[in-house]
Amino acid sequence: MDKDEFVHFPIEDSIDLHTFRPGEVKDLLQDYIEEARKQGFEEVRIIHGRGTGVLRKTVHALLQRHPLVISFREADPGGGGWGATIAVLKKTDSHPG
After folding, report:
1. pTM greater than 0.85
2. Consecutive H or E run containing 6
3. Which domain holds residue 81?
4. pLDDT tens, position by position, for the chain (97 residues)?
5. Helix or strand or coil: residue 43?
């Protein structure tokens, strides 16, 4: 696949970053948050795994700076615990324009 080709995947209320290369995560996560908000999601779960914590730190740093993210927290134990992060997104505008 050409590096400039787009891969389309459905926007759901969670994304598993295990299937992506570390170098793709920053752009991917920014695009995912924007599309999730457009779809009307107010909260999304980002699965980054436990591992060494490097990916979690990358995700949290991006969420801290993203203008559409109100807050974020560790997922509850049933949702992945510290292997996943819940991000609360700004609500979509209910009126055009």
Report:
1. no
2. none
3. 14-89
4. 445 555 566 788 999 998 888 889 999 999 999 999 999 999 999 999 988 888 999 999 999 999 999 999 999 999 999 999 999 999 876 544 4
5. strand
